[in-house]
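Record 1 of the preview.
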Amino acid sequence: DAAEAKGIHMSRLHLALNRDLGNQALTLETLQALLSQMQRSQEGISKNAKLALSFDLVLNKPAMLSGEQGFQRYPIRIESVLRDNEFSTQVDVEVPYSSTCPCSASLSRQLYSEAFDQRFGEESIPKDQILQWILQEAGSVATPHSQRSYAYIKLILAPNEWFEFDELIFDVEKAIGTPVQTAVKRQDEQAFAKLNADNLMFCEDAARRLKDSLEHMNGVVDYWFKVEHQESLHAHNAVAIDYKFSE
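->
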C-alpha cells in the first residue's frame, strides 16, 4: 500500500456495495467481484480490501411431528479478504441447541426408583395401578436439568469454496442432535423431550459430535468452535473449545 496515502474514496465503496449487494444474491462470485471493484475504485491507494457482513439468516423450520412451522434466526458473519490478488473467506455462525445433563438424568432416575420403592414396597400390584401412579403429579419425582446451548463456529474456507448456509446449519444441528424448536404442538414437545433423553450430553459430548462433523466437511481448511451450555443448575456456563487437527 502507498505509505503516503490518505483520504480514501468512501462514497465509491458505498456505491459498490449498493450495486453489487443490493440487487444480487450473496455468492462467492459476488463477493470476489465486489472486493476487486472496491480495491480498483481507490485508484492505487491500496492493493488489499476486506469486507465484513453480519446478518441474521431466517429459516422456516417444521415441527418434529405436527407439521407446524415457525421461523428461527441464525446470526452469521462473513469476512472476505483480497490480499495480493488472493481471496480468503471466513464464515462465523451461531447455532442454538438443547442439552440435558447426563449426571442430573441419572440422579433423577435414582430418586424415581426410590420413590417407587417407597410407594409400593414389596407388594404385588397390577400394571394399571403403576401406570396411574406414573401419570399422576406424584409420579413427577425429579427432572434432570436442561438448558439452551450454543455452538459458535468459525470456518476458514478453501479458495473458491462456498457454503449454502442453511445446509451448513442443518449439518451442525444433525451432528449435535437436539436442535431448538419453533412452533410446536403437544406431540412435538413430547417428541422433543424424548429426543433430549436419547441425547444426554455434557458440553464435551457436544464438542466431540461437532468436531467429527467439521473434520468431514469439504471445503474447510481450518476451523475453531466453542460450545456453551448455559447452565440452569449453576450461575456459570459449561464451555468446551476446540480447533482443527494439525496435519
